[in-house]
Amino acid sequence: MKNKLVLLFLGCAVLGYAQKKNTKSAVKIKPRSEFVAELLSKMTLDEKLGQLNLPTSGDITTGQANSSDVATKIAEGRVGGLFNIKSVQKIREVQKIAVEKSRLKIPLIFGMDVIHGYETTFPIPLGLSCTWDMGLIERSAQIAAQEASADGINWTFSPMVDVSRDPRWGRVSEGSGEDPYLGSRIATAMVNGYQQHDLSKNNSIMACVKHFALYGAPEGGRDYNTVDMSHIRMFNDYFPPYKAAIDAGVGSVMASFNEVDGIPATGSRWLMTDILRKQWGFKGFVVTDFTGIPEMIEHGMGDLQAVSAMSLNAGVEMDMVGEGFLTTLKKSLDEKKVTIETIDNAVKLILEAKYDLGLFQDPYKYCDANRAKTEIFTASSRKEARSISAQSLVLLKNQGQVLPLKKSGTIALIGPLADAKENMPGTWSVATKMENAISLLAGIKEVAGKSTKVLYAKGSNLDYDETFETNATMFGKTLHRDARSKEELLAEALKVANQSDVIVAALGESAELSGESSSRTNLEIPQAQKDLLNALLKTGKPVVLVLFDGRPLVIKEENETVPAILNVWFAGSEAGYAIADVLFGDVNPSGKLTSTFPRSVGQLPIYYAHKNTGRPLSNTEGKFEKFRSNYIDERNEPLFPFGFGLSYTSFDYSNLKISSDKMNAAGKLKVTVDVANTGNYDGKEVVQLYIRDLVGSVTRPVRELKNFQKITLKKGEKQTVTFDITVEDLKFYNSDLQFVAEPGQFDVFVGGNSNADKKVSFELTK
Question: Is the pTM of this model over 0.70?
Answer without folding.
Answer: yes
